[in-house]
Structures are given as C-alpha cells and as structure tokens.
Amino acid sequence: MRIKLVERDYVVFREVERWRYCLGRHIKILAGFPSQRSCDRRLKVLLEMGFLNRKKIIYGVPSIYTLPFKAKMLIGANKRQDKIRLDNIIHDIAVLDTAIYMMSKYNISLSDIQTEKQLHSKDGFSIRKHQPDFVFTKDNKTYCVEVELTLKAKDRLENNIKSNFLNFDIQIWVLEDNPKLIRVIKDNKLQYPNIEITDIKEVRNYVEFRNNN
User: Fold this and answer.
1) Which of 133, 140, 138 lies closest to 164 in space, CA to CA?
2) Residues linked to residue 26 through DSSP beta bridges, in sequence order
3) Residue 205 to residues 101, 153, 175, 202: CA-CA distances in angstroms?
C-alpha cells in the first residue's frame, strides 16, 4: 500500500513529536480534522504505513500516538525515541488539553507555542533547568503555562514561580481542585503578581465540548 503524504500529515508528525505523544482527540484538533472519524481513518493509514506508533499504556486511558524513526527523519527531528513516564501520562494529557484551551482563549496558533521539550532542547548540554509545560507569545508578551495536578514540595513550587517571574511577563497556573496547592500559589501571588490561576475543570470542559462538536 502506497499513499501520498499531504501537508496535514506533516502537521500530525510535528505535533506528535514536539509534545512527545498525543491522543487521537488531540491530533483531531491540532491538525484541523473536520471530525474524529476522518481523523481516525487517516491515523489508521499512517499507522499501517509505519509513520506512527500507537500504544496502550494505562488502563482507562486511550492509546497514545508516538513518532517512529521513519517519520522523525521526514521532519528532521532527533531520531532518539522519547521516554514515556507512566507517572506523567495524566499530567501530559492535561498539558495538551490546556494548550488547546489556550489557543482558543488567547486566539493564538500552533506557531506561537513552544513546548517543554523544545525549551529543553535550547538548553543544549548545560545543566538541565526547570522549564514550564509550554510557553506562548501574544501581543509582544510572553506567557508560560504550568499544569499542576498534585501538590509538590513547597520550596520546589516557589523556586519555579520565582523562575517564571524572572523570565516571563505572565505565568498561568492551571490547577486541580486541591486547597493546599491553590493556597501555595495564591500566597506567592502577593510576591509575584504576574501569576494567573485557571481551574483544570474549565480546560477539560472546553476540550470535551470541542471534541463533541
């Protein structure tokens, strides 16, 4: 079976690569498919031709799509396979949901966004430092986005907040409904006023709506 790759296929490859992996519902929106059915049909073809991998990782979570060597070479990506951390999958899915939400809320495009993976690639061989989940630009301002679903050590959170304050105009924290976590972020807002807070429920509701329409 031979197929002709079209520009949308390359969008799929680039988005899967820079986010490390995606769900089918993310690909549908990011690549602009008119329906989930048309998206799934095209993904099936790309799978059969070896341009995508699909893996079932965790029970109750849809299969994830990753990029094999064959597709990485087409877009000039690093051929090294990304490591998938089981304890990060729910978080990473929430990050993708948040990116889709922010694209609508701030009227930005994919080209305005840099992912954590892309930011780390710019670090080179220096000591690995903290990077936000993704950043974007809007009206000459830089925004960083942090998706936090669990309460980390307070000093670690505060160091990340300080770093974001020094490096970005606005830092958006997308939070689970955890009173202790919310309190820590709100307390730091007194010292670092560029903090904005978004409820992850708002993000999930929006993405669910997008996928059902």
Assistant:
1) 133
2) none
3) 10, 29, 14, 5
